[in-house]
């Protein structure tokens, strides 16, 4: 079953290095469906996609402080007050910016934060009683070092596919699962073992803490 | 010369009672140009319209907490960082809502105010160093009494064509000018005379206040 649906709102995604990079990074996630908005669509078919998903993510480059008009038109057409099945689903945003992060704050050149700028999405989530996820922002991707890109890529994969809220133990599990999928020649065997062992440790410690709390009461 | 340019962003303006009503109310304002966005456009011609205007107003029905995708696509295509001639011009918003005003506040069903919801437009104005006008909101137009509609219509005409900031004396001048245009049979003669007289009074009082302030210093 598809759990995460990513609505790709870039009008020319193939031409965007950022979007292409992000897209390819999800090929090994069977529970993630990437859906590019075409230029015409079957409203009912699109709604079925939304209905099947547990987590819906709008992914787009920021054009003049919002989603590209193309994506907004899609939202205008597809979303309808009667879609009560959206209740309880998660709504996330993956937005890429051509401007540096520090500009998006009071006193910065853009004055407002991404959270403030994306209120319309938050209002959409509120309307349908969806859970609004923290916004995933990519700032000036092309100017990042290779190491920073790789780091952000893993955070992105986690944003898209890890449980929410994502506790330390969930991150540990997620990371060891990912390592296992690329561990075809066994080179990460001992690392994976250690991670699994550590995670078990954490789990035991959490149980212990719960017990202690219980006894104090 | 065109001073106010209203960009009509309703995808089917002729079918909207609100938009049609507002549109017709501006027929007697020679300094106001209403521009309906078509389905394709000549980018340079559209930019010339913006260049010629002193006040630019986006007018649209709110679709899912923002402008219709159609208008957003227009903005995405037309606006360009190089348009420094926008500096100092005014940017206004005329937005019609299908939801009651009191829902748009903390604790209301929509949580956020129109000011918060329209941050992307404010950010656009900031970017080009334009003066952002107070938002003109029309709430549940079809449910308003005939009297309320007429009252809001005059406020709308003022928003579009009166100077900004609009002091009491500017409102008085604006109103007496409007009365004169419809005073073809002389029925408002005495009313207009009184208004002009009152305005002169106010002007003299303002001068007097300025003098007193000056002498105190």
Topology diagram in text:
The structure is a homodimer of 217-residue chains.
Chain A: E1 4-8, H1 17-24, E2 32-36, H2 43-52, E3 55-61, H3 69-78, E4 90-97, H4 114-117, H5 119-127, E5 131-132, E6 136-139, H6 146-161, H7 168-182, H8 189-216
Helix pairs in contact in A: 7-8
CATH class of the largest domain in chain A: Alpha Beta
Counting DSSP E segments of at least 2 residues, the number of strands of chain A comes to: 6
* Name of the CATH architecture of the largest domain in chain A: 3-Layer(aba) Sandwich
Tell me, what's the shape of chain A?
globular
The pLDDT mean of chain A sits at 93
| Main β-sheet description of chain A | 6 strands, parallel
- Helix fraction of chain A, binned, reads 40-55%
Quickly count the helices of chain A: 8
In terms of quaternary structure, the protein is homodimer
Uncertain residue ranges of chain A: none
CATH topology of the largest domain in chain A: Rossmann fold
Strand and helix order of chain A: EHEHEHEHHEEHHH
In terms of structural class, how would the helical and strand content of chain A be classed?
Answer: alpha/beta
Work out the count of structural domains of chain A.
2
**Which two chains form the greatest contact, residue counts included?**
A-B, 28 and 28 residues
